[in-house]
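dude i think i finally got it to work??
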Amino acid sequence: MGARTFLIGGGWDTAQVYEPFLRAAARGAEVPRIGCVIVDEGDGEQQFERYAQALGRAGTTCVPVPLLVPLGGRFEPAGTLDGLDGLLVCGGLTPAYQEAFAGCLERLPRLLAERGTPYAGFSAGAALAARRAVVGGWLLDGVPVCHEDTAEDLEEVAVRDGLGLVPCAVDVHAAQWGTLARLVAAVGRGAVPYGVAVDENTVVEVADGTARVAGLGRAHVVHPAADGGTLVRSYGTGQVFGLS
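look at this
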């Protein structure tokens, strides 16, 4: 966890959630170049333009660079990171993003740390930042724990290897999609040690074991309880909590 990591819970109403990430990227460059990784389901160029516009509204001048990965393809960081000051992994089908990064789950974090390149994850990209990533699903042993529309084309709640940029699991669109309940179920089952569910239009900045919240919504931290239940504590903009 050498480089800064930014977890964006989704949403398009607050371009300012990119500001902390862009400030971190600009430390090494006057006009930072931001690589935007998008798993291309056929509309990759249009999706890139949407992220480029959001970055352009964030208040820090930058140059967005499209890094489109075809659906079913693999992201290769060697050479790709050259000349980039920040890496934004975008949103879409979370299992597809996990598969796209499956070949570099250890190499990419090492390269980011060596170069001091900040990582921002938007929705799927935020979920992927976890050591053990909740990639979708809406059932736990056949029992619904969130709405079927949030399932990412999966049935049972699925946890797969992630990048390990943060020690906790991450779920997104928490208040808007009701996915906090899915994270509570995953923590309660012991599928992940603990987790953070991030609302839309909200960013959690992680550095040196500390997380800071900014934006319109909240970050909901879920820990297992001694009695077998779970404990949830929510943090709003400007508040800080520890990660271990």
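The longest helix spans residues 44-56.
im so relieved honestly
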